[in-house]
Every structure is written in C-alpha cells, then in structure tokens.
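Late entry, adenosine monophosphate complex.
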Amino acid sequence: MSTIFSKIIAKEIPAEIVWEDDEILAFKDVNPQAPVHILIIPKIEIPTANDLDESHDKLMGKMIRMASSIAKNEGIAESGYRLIINCNQEGGQSVYHIHIHLIGGKQLLWP
Ligand code: AMP
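Prediction complete; structure with ligand written out below:
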C-alpha cells in the first residue's frame, strides 16, 4: 500500500530534501519535534520494521550510516542525537513506509 512518502519519492508532493541517492531519501519532517528532525527512508516500500528480512540488511545499514552523516552535516554529531524507528500503533507509527527519525539539536528526554 502506497503512502504519502511514495509521493515524496516520486516528487509528486514537495519536501525539503537534504540527501538523496538511488536507494535512499532524507527530508525534513513537516512537524519537527526538535530543532533538527529529518526522516531517512528507503525508496522501496517496506511498511514496518516487522517487514524487514535479510535482503534489507545492507539497505538498513546504509540508512543508519547516512543518518549519522546527515547529523554531521547538521552540526549535531558531537552534541548528540537520537535515531528512532516507530513500529505499528503502540510504537507511534503513523506512516506505513519504514523510516528512521533523526532528532537532535536540543537535550532530549527519555522516553
Ligand atoms: P511516524 O509517526 O513514526 O510514522 O512518523 C511519521 C512522520 O512523518 C511524522 O513525524 C510526520 O510529521 C511526518 N510527515 C508526515 N507527512 C509528511 C510530509 N508530507 N513531509 C514531511 N514529513 C511528513
């Protein structure tokens, strides 16, 4: 099932893209929870973390590496940041296209 992120990948709706290659797209969250809030998504449709299989290992590793690279570009690598993948309802997932939230730029509370 396609989501709004498929439309962002297809450039059918606008987003503030900060990084892109043939496999991955990173763009600013429209409802930021911190001064830096960027979503890193695969261009293939994987609905949730429950849908990951061995074929996605390399892609997911690259997404984490790109998140850390973007954190450096955003100037928050040294101060610190959080990477989050929400899964399903109780995990707080609202868009069913797997994504990593890169959040930082302020002291984050837990949980
Ligand atoms: P989650 O709740 O983990 O599924 O995260 C989905 C995120 O997507 C939320 O933080 C939303 O603010 C964000 N979001 C939804 N629509 C858009 C959009 N068109 N552009 C950028 N971010 C979006």
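The longest helix spans residues 57-73. Will revisit in the morning.
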